[in-house]
Amino acid sequence: MICLFGGTFDPVHEGHLAAARTAGRWLGARAVRMLLAARPGHRSQPAVSIEHRWQMLRIACEDDPVLVPDDFEVHGVRPSYTVETLERLRHDHPGEAFFWIMGGDAFADLGSWHRCDEVLDFCHLVLLQRPGRRSSSDEALRALLAERATGEVPDSPAGRILTIDASMPDISATAVRRKLAHGDEVAHLLPAGVLTYIRQHGLYA
Ligand code: ATP
């Protein structure tokens, strides 16, 4: 079983960590690989450098052996696309079950992903609802969900969609960046070490 949680982590926050831990527990995973989308191809570019986001991710994962920072997409020059990363990982682990963990908001955007029709060929999707975010209203995605939904952790390598019923903290990186820029309190939204790193380097000021 290979469990992946991808994000731009700009910065990594307690919502990411709660979602990854919850999904990891639910799947019975020994590790959840926190995969830094270094140069995201399908969204606006991050506010701080790859190096800063990577260091913050490493710090955030330090105290939890289940969360493993993964720099697979860091070493390259091209934009990173989830499907290409999955394709390359799949090549190295042909029969393994892959689980891609994400928020329901990210699933709602699946139609805009590069080669979106192929994503389920490479992995299962594991969805967590984010407070205050839309889940999919798109007809095609709702049909896909109905067709591929499963209530149990599948043994097969790919192709099913699991939805985890758990409440996640109402935190987004956008809100964290905004609060930091305004000098508002963010200590409850981020691991302490990440906040120290942000202050030391004057990020998001
Ligand atoms: P931004 O506000 O900049 O869009 P973000 O907080 O959504 O950032 P990302 O790095 O873009 O963070 O998200 C990576 C993944 O984490 C996505 O699958 C997203 O749905 C999920 N995620 C982020 N915050 C939460 C949360 N509070 N609860 C559950 N999932 C979350």
Characterization of the model:
This protein has one domain (2-169): Rossmann fold, CATH 3.40.50. It contains eight helices and seven strands, in the order βαβαβαβααβαββαα. It has helices at residues 14-27, 50-61, 82-92, 104-108, 119-122, 139-148, 173-182, 192-201, and strands at 2-7, 32-36, 67-70, 98-103, 124-128, 149-150, 161-164. It has a seven-stranded parallel β-sheet with strand order 3-2-1-4-5-7-6. Helix 2 (50-61) runs antiparallel to helix 8 (192-201). The protein starts with a strand and ends with a helix. It binds adenosine-5'-triphosphate. Residues 7-10, 15-16, 19, 102-103, 105-106, 128, 130, 168-169, 171-174 line the site of adenosine-5'-triphosphate.
Describe the secondary structure blueprint for this structure.
Elements: E1 2-7, H1 14-27, E2 32-36, H2 50-61, E3 67-70, H3 82-92, E4 98-103, H4 104-108, H5 119-122, E5 124-128, H6 139-148, E6 149-150, E7 161-164, H7 173-182, H8 192-201
Parallel strand pairs: 1-2, 1-4, 2-3, 4-5, 5-7, 6-7
Helix pairs in contact: 2-8
